[in-house]
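Q: I have 438 residues here and want to know how they pack in 3D. Can you give me a structure?
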Amino acid sequence: MRKHASRLLMLSIPTIIEEILSTLLQYVDTAMVGRLGEEATAAVSTTTTVTWLVNSVPGAIGTAMLILISRASGAGDQKQVEKLSQQALLLSVLSGLVLGGLSVVLSPYIPGWMGADPGIRAEASRYFFIVSLPMVFRTASSVLGDALRAVQDTKTPMLISVAANILNIILNYILIYPMGLGVAGAAISSAISYTMSGILMYLVYRRKQELHWKWNTFSVEPGLLKECTAVGSPVLGTSVVSCLGYVVFASLVSGMGTTVFAAHSIAVTAETIFYVPGYGLRTATSALIGTARGEKDDEKIAAVGKLSVLLTLGIMCVSGVILYAGAYPLMSLFTPSAAVVELGGEMLRIVALSEPFFGLMIVLEGIFYGLGRTRYAFGVETFGMWGVRIFSTFLCVRVWGLGLRAVWYCMIADNICKAVLFAIPFLTVWFRSRRRDR
C-alpha cells in the first residue's frame, strides 16, 4: 500500500502543482482584464464555454491516448506504444486544423449565439478569433502532454505549462496597459503562450525515449485509430455534453444582466483553484490504473483507486473551508465593482460546502477512465448536466424568475448527483472485494 501511495503522490504532485499554478496565473489574467471594467470581463467570459467545447476534442483524444498508451506501457509492448505515439501526433495536427478553421469562421457569430449584450459582441468576437488562430499548437500541447503523462512523465508538462502561463502574464501586462490594446492585448498574449506551449511540448515529446519513433517508420494505423475512437468517443461525448450544457447554462445566466453575468463568471474562475487538485489526482490516477490494467494487477487497481478517493476527499474538505473563509477577499482581487464582489462572494460561500462532492466526482471519473469504462462516464455526465443542472436552471430562471443563488444551487445539485452515481458502482465493487478478503 505504501508503494502505491508513494507512486500516486509522485505522479500527482506535479499535475496538482501544474493545475494550481496555471489557475493562479489565470487569476492574474482575469484580474488584469477585470480592471478594464465589467464590459471587458463580460467580453472575455462570453466565449469561455465555447472555448471549453472546442478544447473537448483534443481533451478526448488526449484521454484516449493516456488510457491506451499507459495500458500498452504496463503490458510491456513498446512497439504498440510507438505506434500509438505516432497516432497521437497525427490526431493532434488534424484536429487542430479542423477546429481552428471552424473557430475562425464562426467567431463573428458566437457572441450573438451566447446571448451577449450587443455592446460587447464585437470585442468578444475579436478575442475569440485571435485565440483560435494557434489552434494546432493548442491541440498539440493537450494531446502530446497526455502522451507524456501516459508514460508517467508528469513533471515536464507541468514545467511547460507554468512557463507558458508566466509568458502570458508578462505579455498581458505589456499589451493591455503600456500598449493600450485592452481585451485584444489579452487575446494576443494568450495566442503567443499557446504557440510556445505547443512547440515545447512537441520538442519534448519527440525526445522522450518511450514515445520516440523515426519518421521513416511513420504510418497511419486504422486499427489503432478505431480503438482510439472506441475509447475516446464516449470521452468526447462526455465533454461535448458537458460543454454544451455549460454553453446553455452560461446563456441562461448572461440574460440576467452584465453585472450578474460578470459576478457569475468571475466566481466560476475564482472557484477553480479550489478543485483543480482533484483534476491533478485524476490524471495521475488514470495513468496508474491504466498501467495496472496492462499489467493485469487487480490488487494495484483497487489500492490506487481507494488511495486516490481518500486523498481527494481530504484535500477537497480543506479547500472548501478555505474557500468559504476567503470568498469575498478573493472576489475583490478580480474586480473593483462592489456589486460584483458582493454577489460573487455569496456564490462562492454557497459552493464551498459542496467541494468534497465535486472532488469525489472528478477522481471517480478518472478511475473509470483508467479502467476504460468511458461509456458509463458519458451516461452520468449526460444525466447530471441536462437532467439536473440545465432543466432545473431553466425552471428557476425562465419559469420562476429566481436569481443567481438558485442557479448555483442547481449547479451544486448536478455535482452531487454525479458524485453519487459514480460512487455507487465503485463502492459496490469495493465492498464485494472486502467480503472476499474475509
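Q: Anything worth noting?
A: The CA atoms of residues 43 and 120 lie 6 Å apart. The longest helix spans residues 258-295.
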